């Protein structure tokens, strides 16, 4: 596991959000990313791990709006891991698929538990376990796909328990895409795949971000345009993954994924 990924998965108790210095309003709560001590931590600045920095060296407590964003983001990242695993399994790359089953079960789901409790959201330990077992036992591709869809449905049920406005949802999309860019930068060097797992995670996160966009219902023409433009940008990135076991040159640069994340983040901050 890369050092960068370790920093990203610091848990639901710390607000992990990298990106532009913008504010998002969620049901009267303001998330000022630039002012957030946890935001600074995710950038590698002072006030990060160990609670250093900030007033009197104390770590800032995440607001309700921040906790919504991090919980929704973590749910989407779990979906991304599993999505990559399911597609690898379907392609016959069983051993690679297994590695994507282990990460959500051992790390992310445990970090989600405070959010499950706070938002009275149902967990999905059982469906996740069934999917992992289907992969481990080398069940048919159809059975694994069915198990994956069951986890997706559980994730959507948990997501539906979090009252979040359009800006919050679009902000979550932007941060998932930024995480994809981080993974892609670790997995691809000089246009070659050097870490297949990170490269595959990056794909899963973009696809999961697209799924979240598709489930986000616009309430205005401006919101509809923001969703359509974001979807087009993300679909344009998919050429970076002609296959998940790509051995040829990679034509997309990490900067393109970071740029897409920033554009979606800007749309989130400016669209009501």
Describe it for me?
The protein has 272 residues and is mainly alpha-helical. The chain contains 10 helices and 4 strands; from the N terminus they run αββααααααββααα. It has helices at residues 3-8, 37-42, 64-90, 94-118, 125-136, 141-160, 166-187, 196-214, 221-237, 254-270, and strands spanning 23-26, 29-32, 188-189, 192-193. The protein has a two-stranded antiparallel ribbon. A hairpin with a 2-residue loop joins β3 and β4. The longest helix is centred in the first third of the chain and has 27 residues, at 64-90. It is globular. 46% of the residues are buried. Mean pLDDT is 80; it is low at 1-25 and 27-58.
Figure out the total of helices.
10
- How far is the N terminus from the C terminus? 38 Å
Largest sheet: 2 strands, antiparallel
Category by helix and strand content:
mainly alpha
- Overall mean pLDDT score? 80
Low-confidence stretches: 1-25, 27-58
Quick one: overall form? globular
Q: Strand share of the residues?
A: under 5%
Q: Would you count the extended β strands for me?
A: 4
Order of helices and strands: HEEHHHHHHEEHHH
List the helices and strands and how they pair.
Layout: H1 3-8, E1 23-26, E2 29-32, H2 37-42, H3 64-90, H4 94-118, H5 125-136, H6 141-160, H7 166-187, E3 188-189, E4 192-193, H8 196-214, H9 221-237, H10 254-270
Antiparallel strand pairs: 1-2, 3-4
Quick structural overview:
Helices cover 63% and strands 4% of the residues.
Key terms:
272 residues, mainly alpha, two-stranded antiparallel ribbon, 4 strands, 63% helix, globular, disordered N terminus
């Amino acid at each position: 596991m890369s050092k960068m990924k370790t920093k990203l998965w610091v848990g639901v108790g710390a607000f992990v959000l990298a990106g532009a210095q913008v504010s998002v309003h969620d049901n009267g709560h303001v998330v000022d990313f630039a002012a957030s001590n946890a935001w600074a931590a995710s950038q590698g600045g002072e006030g990060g791990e160990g609670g250093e920095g900030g007033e009197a060296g104390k770590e800032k407590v995440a607001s309700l709006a921040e906790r919504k964003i991090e919980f929704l983001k973590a749910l989407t990242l779990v979906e991304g891991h599993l999505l990559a695993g399911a597609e690898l399994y379907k392609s016959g790359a069983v051993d690679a698929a297994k590695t994507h089953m282990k990460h959500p079960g051992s790390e992310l789901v445990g970090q989600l538990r405070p959010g499950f409790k706070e938002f009275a959201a149902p967990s999905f330990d059982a469906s996740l376990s069934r999917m992992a077992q289907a992969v481990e036992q080398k069940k048919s591709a159809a059975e694994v796909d069915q198990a994956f869809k069951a986890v997706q449905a559980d994730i959507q049920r948990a997501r539906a328990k979090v009252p979040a406005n359009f800006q919050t949802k679009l902000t979550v999309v932007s941060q998932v895409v930024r995480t994809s860019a981080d993974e892609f930068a670790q997995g691809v060097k000089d246009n070659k795949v050097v870490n297949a797992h990170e490269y595959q995670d990056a794909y899963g996160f973009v696809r999961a971000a697209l799924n979240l966009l598709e489930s986000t219902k616009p309430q205005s023409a401006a919101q509809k345009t923001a969703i359509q433009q974001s979807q087009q940008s993300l679909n344009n990135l998919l050429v970076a993954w002609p296959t998940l076991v790509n051995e040829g040159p990679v034509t997309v640069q990490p900067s393109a994924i970071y740029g897409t994340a920033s554009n979606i983040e800007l749309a989130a901050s400016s669209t009501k």
